[in-house]
Amino acid sequence: METEFSLHQSILFAEPAIEKPLEPVKVPLLKNPATVPSTKPKKVALFNGSVISLKPRVRPTGIGLDEKGDSFFSMDDLYERVRLRDELRQSRKVIDEAKKRDAARLAEAAKETAEENRLLWSDKYRPSSFLEICPAGNERQYRLVMHWLSKWGSLVFGNAKIDDENVDHLGRPLRKILLVHGPSGVGKTAVVHLLARQMGYHVEELNAANSMDTLGGTDADTGRGANIAAVLKLRVKNALTTNTITAQGKPTCLVIDEIDSASNTAEIVRVLADVLRSDSDNRTATESSSGTFFLLATKKKPKKKFSLNRPIICIANDIYSNSGRSGSANPMEKLRQFCEIVPFRKATGGESMFGKKINASAQKTVKAHLADISKKEKLNLDHREISEVFEICEGDIRASINYLQFSSRKLDPELVGRLATSDNSSNKDKTMSWFLLVDRLFTRDQKLSKEENFESVMRLVSSGDEKTAASGSLDKVIRGCFNKYLDVVHLQDDLALRPAMISDWLFYYDALTTGARDASFYPTLASLKFWSLFSDINPQKFRDTNSLVPNARGLEFESFELLKKNKAVVQRIVDQLPIETKLSFGGTSSNFEFYACQFIPILDRMFSPEIGSSRAMSALQPFEQALLKKLVLLTETLDLQLETQRDTELNMTYLLFAPDWDTIASFPSEEKYQQKRKLTNAKRQWLFPLLQQELDAKNASAQLKRKRTETPDAEEKGAKTKKQKLTSSIEYFRSQYGDVAAKTEAPVSRDDSSRIWVKYHEGFSNAVRKNIGWKDLWS
Amino acid sequence: MSLWVDKYRPKKFGQLTFHPQITDSLKSLAATGDFPHLLVYGPSGAGKKTRIYATLNELFGASVEKLKIDVKTFTNASSKKLEFNVLSSPYHLEITPSDMGNNDRVVIQDLLKDVASTEQVDFSNPGKNGVKHRFKVVIINEADSLSRDAQAALRRTMEKYSANIRLIMVCNNISNIIAPIKSRTLLVRVPAPSVKEIGDILLHIALKESVKFSSNDPEKLRKYVDAVARGSAQNLRRSMLTFETISMQLELLNVDNLSSATIVLDWEVIIQNIALSLRRDKSVANLAKLRVTFYELLSHCIPSRLILKTLALELASSETSHCRELMETAAVFDERLSLGLKAIFHLEGFAAKAMVIMS
After folding, report:
1. Minimum distance, in Å, between the CA of residue B155 and any CA atom of chain A
2. How far apart are CA B299 and CA A559, in angstroms?
3. pLDDT, tens digit, 9 for 90 and up, residues A506-550
4. Residues of the signal sequence (chain B) (predicted)?
5. Is A630 in the B-facing interface, judged by CB distances under 8 Å?
6. Against a cut of 0.90, is the pTM above it?
7. Would you call B352 and A507 a contact, using CB atoms and an 8 Å cutoff?
8. Tell me, which fold does domain B195-261 have in CATH?
9. Is the ipTM of this complex over 0.85?
10. A542 interfaces chain B, CB cutoff of 8 Å
């Protein structure tokens, strides 16, 4: 503050030198009258208390003029002095004023900085231009998003069409919705918002918080479900078709954030599907009106045209989440089908399909980003500390920035040092009491006898008992001990004897806490047993070593999450089974044991046959053909979908089945896991196109058949009512057509290229029925 | 459905091949037009369900197979809505109350009361001997995982509504079923089919599906299908699935290569590896490694008790000298697994104990 102020002054005032020349003038003026008369040395006490003796100057007497000149006052000099003094006074005044003003300004500035401080850094350092985005290993994904958005440019801004096979006739990307997914805090929302803004859109956001809002005035109580869906639809449509005032004439880009965690995901997805459907209806209409295709719905009233001409971007954390009820179809599953999917990933270790791997360059960029912030905020963190923060937050950029901000207040070197040296599993909860208790349970005080020691531990454990047991922190303590005791034993004698003993006590604990038994005190005994079995005089030695079980603390949670996911997959597969099959598999029960342990692994085997001799169905050997036919039948009955998933990192495409059972059938810990994965993928590369082809052919022939059965019906009716009607041209052509279909049907199913397709109006009913003849088709 | 399991599932008593005594007694039971509550138990893949449906078929005719799935909703004590799938035909219902976890008591009570309070009126099918079936059959799957509360709730219901309901409970093991229920039911044990019986069925299927073998020597064929049956632990369902998979993978089944007759699933391989490493390295470091593997198995929906059982059998087969202790310990831990909730504690505990026993 001080230095700043003086600096400030010197810049403000051009003549600070005024004061200085005054001094030498002043001194003789004051001193002279006193010193001249006396010739003796004189003692003078100064204000600061020190005493000095003043000697009269001995001057050469020969020069009297000088002395005389001093006694005379030169008027010019005097005037000069008066002028200077006035000037000084003036400048003082100015300075004082400036000081006041400055103080006020400073106060203001202080207020301002306080305001700025109140901003979360994660908001403050939210990137505002493309160059500011921290790459974090997601550059490719950024480019994908940008590329997708730029495709809309031709429609929205009238840019030149991008020549690409992935755009439709209006220049829009084929998949009209972009689905960005990835773990939290990697910058999905930031990037999407930023890119949309940079491409010149106004971002309209719909998120978990506001998607449930109804428009003002509508009463939500009556007919709630339908109402909300309608309102939601209105909102989406409004966002897509109208411009808001605040957008300043920019086109809107709808961003649906947190689509997977919104409470009405299913509704949002339904609305999106509706929007898309109405759009593609529209597209066929416009296409047909251009004259190349026949028009079916001419009699229909021309509906108000709706075409989707604004981009929609959805953001989700987990696109495979199954938060909905287990019975109902997963909305995300539906959403995935019509979305372009861009996966974002964490910088720590992008979990690719090939297990976890560390992405060094991505980590570097994130750390550089954090270092930049720390420089700007004058935190003076060194590289090691930054990587520590990064580790703690597990690659979550937002969390890292938050962590920086809130720890910056107390980041003194000592604390940072402790942060860095504390246990390497670096848990945020380490200061919590249960954690300390776990530590305490593994230490034995050297000075006390065994009994005293036990007493003290018992007091410690049981003192917090009522509270801890109730809030479930006893469970945390036991879990903590369980996670730790192997490391301890490993360093003591590495024998399985004591782990075997503690297992009895763990059962005791488990049995007492399971079920609503009123035994709040006894379970704590298990933790005491931990102490008596494993406590060590020198706990430091195992605190610093690496844990034997990698990620011991996360393991429980991770496996639980995976289990949940796998259960959902099993449930889904079970739900899709036809009832008869369920019966032969042992009834309606979601008998996980059978499905997960036998059916799915065997199904996996069935669907990974050896790669066949050829890539074309017709060139296959008869055995392989039979096999494929069987698989096709299976895919149909199990209602499996063939999906592709792209790994942008390795630029590889993975093929998988829609209820993705790979997580159940395969085990990443197996030695040959990677090879197996590759092999499976290669097999599927061969199998999937064939399957798809066969499925399509099947659908096609089914449609043909349906039509064929329709035709004889019509014929019969015609014959019954009037013979004349049969002779009417349309019926005649119809019957002809039926014959043609019957004739061509058999060879058609084999050969894809020469098939003729006639799209029939799907929602067929008598109300809009219109007879079609050859003329209509081929004119 | 194209799976052989489905295709060759017998629908009538006449098509059942093995366990003739059970089939006969069920047949005579059905012939009377009425039967007591049944408790059918036995290992999976032994044909319990098939026999039950054959009985129903005998009683009510083929329309038993006209199945549909209803979703019923219940509200539990804290007025939370529960959805529950019920498989039903005009004559019976099939439920799996263990799907509902702790709420199974509510389901049992509400559903059974609901069914029992409406009397079955059957004019269209007067049945044999002119007896009208005034009752509806309720099949309860996985009865062994019913909670104690639910079983207690069943107990009274079974007597009170016996005029309108017949219960058929299906389970693998009756040790979890409380004694009062056992005494109110007719116990029917369906043992696993013998290797030969499974082999017969597989050969029959092979004939029908024209599966090609490398040699048609009946001796060798027999050996091959026996290997399939043995590899699937005499589980008929699994044998059929395995056999179908094998015949899909290979054009020509090599009867001389018996190891190709079994499919060892990935999780079984992993448990075998666990057993191997347990015997080789009896240190805590290994225990820590195994913990990760156990977690992985658990997260792949493999039930903890199945893991324990497979592991114990694997260990016992190779460590014959400690067989007795190992099985005893395994039994203790099996109980712990079924009583407790934290499977990982007990699996690791068993691994530690096994290390101690074997060292």
Report:
1. 22
2. 5
3. 888 887 777 655 556 666 777 777 777 777 776 666 655 666 677
4. none
5. yes
6. no
7. no
8. Helicase, Ruva Protein; domain 3 (1.10.8)
9. no
10. no
